[in-house]
């Protein structure tokens, strides 16, 4: 489910924590990399950040950093 499709009744505590970090990371990475992430990458990113929330991570800044790292390592256009 994407941010556009989330309604108040579907928002869980995990989503309330994860979604802002995911959106922030996608915005930052899109601006820096000059391209948007594809749908599959965004879905996998959401699952990854959701797992971190399930494991107890609640810090928005740490989740954003994890998301940015995930995007960088899964970007086929990124060269080290």
Task: Report on this structure.
- By secondary structure, the chain is mainly alpha-helical.
- It has a domain at 21-28 and 37-75.
- The chain is built from 3 helices and no strands.
Q: What's a quick, concise take on this entry?
A:
It contains 3 helices and no strands. By secondary structure, it is mainly alpha-helical.
Which helices and strands occur, and which strands form pairs?
Blueprint (H helix, E strand, L loop, with lengths): L12 H21 L5 H16 L5 H14 L7
Return the string of H and E elements. Answer: HHH
Share in β-strands: under 5%
Instruction: Choose one word for the global shape.
Output: elongated
Separation of the first and last Cα atoms: 32 Å
- How many strands, what sense, and barrel or not for the largest sheet? none
SS-derived structural category: mainly alpha
Q: Estimate the mean pLDDT confidence.
A: 87
Count, helices = 3
Instruction: Name the helicity range.
Output: 55-70%
The tally of beta strands, per DSSP, is 0
| Radius of gyration, taken over Cα atoms and rounded to an integer in Å | 12 Å
Low-confidence stretches: 1-7
């Amino acid at each position: 489910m994407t941010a556009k499709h989330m309604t108040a009744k579907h928002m869980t505590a995990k989503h309330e924590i994860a979604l802002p970090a995911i959106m922030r990371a996608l915005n930052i990475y899109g601006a820096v990399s000059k391209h948007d992430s594809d749908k599959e990458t965004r879905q996998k990113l959401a699952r990854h950040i959701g797992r971190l929330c399930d494991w107890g991570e609640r810090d928005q800044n740490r989740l954003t950093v994890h998301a940015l790292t995930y995007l960088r390592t899964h970007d086929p256009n990124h060269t080290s």
